[in-house]
Amino acid sequence: MNRSERILIIIAAAGFAVGIVTHTVELISGGWLPYTSVPLWKNIYWTSLTFLDPLVIVLLFARPLPALVPANLVIISDVIINTGVFNYFGHYRIIMQCAFCVYVMAVSVYFLTKKRMRNV
After folding, report:
1. Of the candidates 70, 36, 65, 37, which has an alpha carbon nearest to the alpha carbon of residue 51?
2. Above 50 in pLDDT, residue 120?
3. Which end of the chain is more exposed for a tag (fewer CB within 10 A), N or C?
4. Using CA atoms, how far apart are residues 103 and 108, in angstroms rounded to an integer?
5. Phi and psi at residue 97, in whole multiples of 5°?
6. Is residue 116 classed as helix, strand or coil in its secondary structure?
7. Whole-number pLDDT of residue 23
8. How far apart are alpha carbons 6 and 8 in whole angstroms?
9. What pLDDT, in 10s, does the model give residues 33-62?
10. SS3 of 70, please?
11. CB under 8 Å to 77, separation ≥6 — which residues?
12. Which of 110, 99, 17 shows the shortest CA–CA distance to 65?
């Protein structure tokens, strides 16, 4: 992987690190399963992101290409779940998260296209 590609992965990891900070702060301030105003399944999902986000970061640095699969699963599922709760988070956070989701998907397409081109 060249320097530019490593930077793409570092930026993706930084985005997931924002998620770690966000969910950790919410756990510290609200306790275990802190999202009490949403259904239990959403509360469990958002709490699990406290552990899934760091896992994605570790995978991104250990095995960047395969790690793009769980990275996409985490961010796409998070965006899908969060778009139904604009009032809970506010529009700004959802817009930023959607932008990050597009970034992760674009990086994935880049690496898949590059890999496919090498195999031709």
Report:
1. 70
2. no
3. C
4. 9
5. -70, -40
6. helix
7. 93
8. 5
9. 998 888 999 999 999 999 999 999 999 999
10. helix
11. 45
12. 110
For tokens 């966000």, the residue is 22
**Pairwise CA distance, residues 90 & 64, whole Å:** 32
Q: Is the dihedral of CA 8, 9, 10, 14 positive or negative?
A: positive
Question: What is the Cα–Cα distance from 74 to 59, expressed in whole angstroms?
Answer: 13
Amino acid at 77: S
CB distance 48 to 34 below 8 Å: no
55 vs 85, higher pLDDT: 55
Question: What three-state secondary structure class fits 54?
Answer: helix
Query: What pTM was computed for the model?
Result: 0.88
How far apart CA 27 and CA 48 sit, in angstroms, is 11
Query: How many Cβ atoms sit within 10 Å of the Cβ of residue 115?
Result: 10
Type of residue numbered 1: M
- Tell me the residue type at 105: M
Token pair recorded at residue 76: 């796409």
* Structure tokens that stand for 83 in this block: 């778009």
| DSSP 3-state of 33 | coil
DSSP code of 32? Answer: S
